[in-house]
């Protein structure tokens, strides 16, 4: 398996070798719960859900951690705006987060740790950094000294002498270097705070992920994930703290997803050019959204497009139509028994996924399998091999997060097929019968039957009904 490792100096795909055989430890940067998350955040969450699913498909035990930032400047600002305690703001949007990821069809993480649950551990880590000479206190604030860590910039490839005050480096005269980042913030009047050796305050965001990941996954773990805008400063600053303390590699593989753009510009709340995931879910099925994202390379920037989402919805509808067409409900609980040819298709799928999680190619293989099903239905309908291809389609589709409610969806009636189209096919069948073209007349009956549409010839004409 090859993974594009953002930490690699040559920015190349590297063979994945877990620290502990048979086990994968993953950490995914989660939400700051001051608002509902937008569809760009959903892209990140959804893709790494698929990474986790694929590792499990390959037999790995996956420990999947996604933190929840429930104390932050933005959260405090929202608390003041809504005039309710920050803890109530956090709980409101934590509930919304879980509602929305469930609606998107994401698997539950192994752990969802909250920042406020690790305050003592964060204070201890900052104190240890200060003791070892990596941090310094100034007027109640504590900063990490980037000059003290020789490898600072190794993830983002930024040079210390180039890091001047700007968009990603805050201006602060208390700092020894402009890139020194905050580990502990002195409390302002009426702000939530915790007692510490430096007085009342709260930890900086960069410390939260270091403490939580080390506590749950250990000093070194396999994969750290997030959107590409977290490379600097967030992930760079995580590495600095963790490796300054342990002297060991913090994370072996760093994976970063690309932006979701609006008219070529990054979607973000700060730019006010975003769509909330829950609002998009009101218009599109979760699997259509998943298809849209997975049909692109996860590292590429893509434009949000309702037109492409409509195409994705149709593509998913086609996949379900194939399964309805073979009456998958009637044999879905039978055990799959794949032939060598079917195992080859499975191998092609795995090859795509093991080349840096090539979901676009993996989806293409799903549709190649539907073409095999079509071939059997058209040219060799008595051959039962089509059932195994249907099993394979479902098995591989579920690796990507599709078909989670398959039985329920297949049992739904066919109201999405227009009555006019059914009546038109029945008229064509009548014409074929008049012309004594029994082959095509029977084919229409058989094809409609596979879709759950039953025909009954009477003296007054042909009646049809849905086989529910």
Structure description:
There is one protein chain. With 468 residues, the chain is an alpha/beta fold. It folds into three domains: 265 residues, Rossmann fold (3-Layer(aba) Sandwich); 106 residues, Anticodon-binding domain of a subclass of class I aminoacyl-tRNA synthetases (Four Helix Bundle (Hemerythrin (Met), subunit A)); 48 residues, no CATH class. 45% of the residues lie in helices and 15% in strands. It is built from 15 helices and 15 strands. Strands 4-3-9-10 form a four-stranded parallel β-sheet, sandwiched between helices. A four-stranded antiparallel β-sheet has the order 5-6-7-8. Helix 2 crosses helix 3 and helix 5 crosses helix 6. The model has no long low-confidence stretch (mean pLDDT 92).
Question: Brief overview, please?
Answer:
The chain contains 15 helices and 15 strands.
Number of domains: 3
How is the largest sheet built, in terms of strand order?
4-3-9-10
Mean pLDDT: 92
Helix content: 40-55%
Distance between the termini: 44 Å
How much of the sequence lies in strands comes to: 5-15%
Question: Keyphrases for this structure?
Answer:
468 residues; alpha/beta; Rossmann fold; Four Helix Bundle (Hemerythrin (Met), subunit A); 3 domains; four-stranded parallel sheet; 15% strand
Topology:
Layout: E1 2-4, E2 13-15, E3 23-28, H1 39-57, E4 61-66, H2 73-82, H3 86-103, H4 119-131, E5 135-138, E6 141-144, E7 181-186, E8 201-203, H5 205-217, E9 221-227, H6 231-246, E10 251-257, E11 260-262, E12 265-266, H7 277-283, H8 286-294, E13 302-303, H9 306-325, H10 340-353, H11 359-379, H12 385-399, H13 406-411, H14 419-434, H15 438-450, E14 453-458, E15 461-466
Parallel strand pairs: 3-4, 3-9, 9-10, 11-13
Antiparallel strand pairs: 1-2, 5-6, 6-7, 7-8, 11-12, 14-15
């Amino acid at each position: 398996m090859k993974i594009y490792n953002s930490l690699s100096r040559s920015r190349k795909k590297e063979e994945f070798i877990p620290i502990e055989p048979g086990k994968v430890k993953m950490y995914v940067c989660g939400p700051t719960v001051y608002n509902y998350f937008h569809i760009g955040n959903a892209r990140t969450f959804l893709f790494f859900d698929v990474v986790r699913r694929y590792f499990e498909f390959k037999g790995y035990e996956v420990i999947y951690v996604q933190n929840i930032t429930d104390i932050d400047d933005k959260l405090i600002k929202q608390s003041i705006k809504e005039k309710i305690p920050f803890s109530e703001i956090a709980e409101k949007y934590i509930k919304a987060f879980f509602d929305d990821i469930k609606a998107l069809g994401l698997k539950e993480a192994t752990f969802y740790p909250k920042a406020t649950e690790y305050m003592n551990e964060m204070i201890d880590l900052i104190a240890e950094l200060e003791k070892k000479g990596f941090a310094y206190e100034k007027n109640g604030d504590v900063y990490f000294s980037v000059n003290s860590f020789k490898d600072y910039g190794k993830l983002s490839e930024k040079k210390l002498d180039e890091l001047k005050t700007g968009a990603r480096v805050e201006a602060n005269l208390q700092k020894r270097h402009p890139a020194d980042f905050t580990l502990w913030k002195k409390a302002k009047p009426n702000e939530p705070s915790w007692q510490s050796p430096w007085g009342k305050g709260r930890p900086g965001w960069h410390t939260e992920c270091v403490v939580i990941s080390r506590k749950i996954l250990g000093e070194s773990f396999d994969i750290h994930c997030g959107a590409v805008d977290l490379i600097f400063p967030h992930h760079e600053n995580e590495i600095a703290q963790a490796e300054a303390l342990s002297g060991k590699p913090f994370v072996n593989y760093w994976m970063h997803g690309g932006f979701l753009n609006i008219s070529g510009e990054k979607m973000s709340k700060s730019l006010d050019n975003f769509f909330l995931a829950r609002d998009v879910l009101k218009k599109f099925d979760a699997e259509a959204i998943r298809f849209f994202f997975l049909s692109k390379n996860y590292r590429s920037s893509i434009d949000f497009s309702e037109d492409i989402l409509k195409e994705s919805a149709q593509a998913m509808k086609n996949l379900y139509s194939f399964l309805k067409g073979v009456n998958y409900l009637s044999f879905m609980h039978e055990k799959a028994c794949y032939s060598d040819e079917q195992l080859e298709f499975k191998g092609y799928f795995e090859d795509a996924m093991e080349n840096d999680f090539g979901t676009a190619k993996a989806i293409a293989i799903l549709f190649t399998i539907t073409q095999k099903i079509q071939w059997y239905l058209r040219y060799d309908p008595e051959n039962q091999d089509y059932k195994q291809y249907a099993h394979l389609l479902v098995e591989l589709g579920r690796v990507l997060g599709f078909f989670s409610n398959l039985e329920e969806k297949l049992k739904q009636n066919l109201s999405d097929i227009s009555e006019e189209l059914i009546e038109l096919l029945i008229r064509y069948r009548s014409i074929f019968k008049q012309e004594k073209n029994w082959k095509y007349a029977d084919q229409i009956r058989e094809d409609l039957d596979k879709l759950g549409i039953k025909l009954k010839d009477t003296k007054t004409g042909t009646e049809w009904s849905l086989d529910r």
